[in-house]
Amino acid sequence: xxDEQGSIERCSFNVVHxxxxxxxxxxxxxxxxxxxxxxxxxVFGDTTRVKILFALFTAEMCVxxxxxxxxxxxxxxxxxLRVLKQARLVKCRKEGKMVYYSLxxxxxxxxxxQGLAHISHK
Amino acid sequence: xxDEQGSIERCSFNVVHxxxxxxxxxxxxxxxxxxxxxxxxxVFGDTTRVKILFALFTAEMCVxxxxxxxxxxxxxxxxxLRVLKQARLVKCRKEGKMVYYSLxxxxxxxxxxQGLAHISHK
DNA sequence: CAATCATATGAATACATGCTCATATGTTAT
DNA sequence: ATAACATATGAGCATGTATTCATATGATTG
Lengths: 122, 122
What we know:
CATH architecture of chain A: Orthogonal Bundle
Oligomer: homodimer
Mean pLDDT of chain A: 90
Helix content of chain A: 55-70%
């Protein structure tokens, strides 16, 4: 309990509302958690990956079909599928030479729906 | 109907499962919508912005307090607040020299909750 | 009006990332 | 085995982006 606290004071290095900052700090999840959350959303933050996930909402697909659907290089699709897999958003199943990808998450659909709701002009 | 379709055929430029691709294509939202969705998630895909949003879940805060909370430059915070505002995720209110930011969205909380649920090892 | 303070903004920089090209891996068929 | 095919992977490149520094804007106070 120093003498430099109170409701309103100087800013810059100090804080205007010390109580608020303390309260907020208490309620915040740990840094690692927030970092992981941002990492997850980073995965959603790319058109190609969003398209792939949306496609997999409808059906399991092989790399070849996804490539044709998106009109991209097979390599590009494969790279992005790896990202999605590392984030545990999709899983794959081998059948001969083909690899079939499908969703591996129950939350993505709801996250996307909420995102779409926001986009639809609020 | 031509003679190059069917269930299984060559890949590369053609498609293995033409029916699946067609079905998926039909069910996919338009390109612009998918782009906007990715743009929205891109905003969530940064630790600083995630922290700011989490902070605002608890309380309205001025730039100064957010800066102190995050231990960043005031400039960095201001830049990110602009991004959040452009995405219509936060709104601001002026009071003298201070600017108070608060949430401007009902979906973010649920999106974050779903994201956290995914992270918590499924 | 001059000084101080809170916030915003522009330029520069450092770093991340998505795509392509080339090639590797692994599977099926001849 | 060899060829054809589906997918994965690594390097390189081009683009995007988060931060910092310096400074501008706008408000309050003396």
